[in-house]
Structures are given as structure tokens and as C-alpha cells.
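Handout, section B. The chain below has 142 residues.
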Amino acid sequence: MEELNDLLKLGVYKEISVEEYYQLQSKGAPKAIPTMCILNIKHDKNGAPVRAKSRIVILGNLEQCTWEKGEVYALVITQTQVCLLTLLAVSHKRALKQADCKNAFCRGVLPPKEVVIVRPPPGCPKSKQGAYWHLKKTLYRL
């Protein structure tokens, strides 16, 4: 549920009705791509379970559109940002450590001409029956 709430907060998708989906398809939008929810158990250093984590992913192997290699990437942090973080750490005599950006791959904005429609994961508690998601930002893809 936390994953789904984060996607809503980030504005990753807009829920659309079946009628809106058919309208977009009549204008050339590709067929909706199915999604699924992947569950993962996080463990502590002793191997004991600490928390369960879920991630909603697009089943990209079922996508009809093919992408050029140059178009398939997810910008997480730029070289300039890495340099700035390093400069700040050095100037404040701090050690650089690993960082985690929550939902990092769900922050890339899709171009307006790129229409991606997905079906919510089966049993999604936040989506109406028969609804689709019109993606506004990128989503994890298998």
C-alpha cells in the first residue's frame, strides 16, 4: 500500500475510465500494458525479516512498442549532482555513504507525445474496477 500511495503522491499516473482508454486508442495510443505487484522481504544483518516491500512493475515483455537503445534509460542523478554532493561532503569533512532515493525510477516525466497506458495490478485497492492508468511519469519495468 505504501508503494501505491507514493506513486499517487508523485503523480506517476492518472486513472482513466474504459471510455477514456478507447478514446486514446482511437487517436493512436498503443494497447494497455499489464502490470503486477512484486513483493520482497527485507532482512536485517542476522537474516531476520524486518519489513515487506512491494513494487508495481510494467510487464514490458508484453509491450507492443519497441524502443531505441538511446531512449531506454532512467535518469537518477546527474554527473553535476554527484560532483556537488562530493564537494559538499569534502568541504564539511563528511564521509560519503550510500544513499537511497525512494521511488527513484518513478520520477522521470514522460514526454507529452508518448502515451503509455497500463492496467493496474490485479486486485489493486486504489483503482476502480475496469480502470486504466495513463502514465505521466516512468514506472519500473520488467
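Note. The longest strand covers residues 33-43. Compare this with the example in section A.
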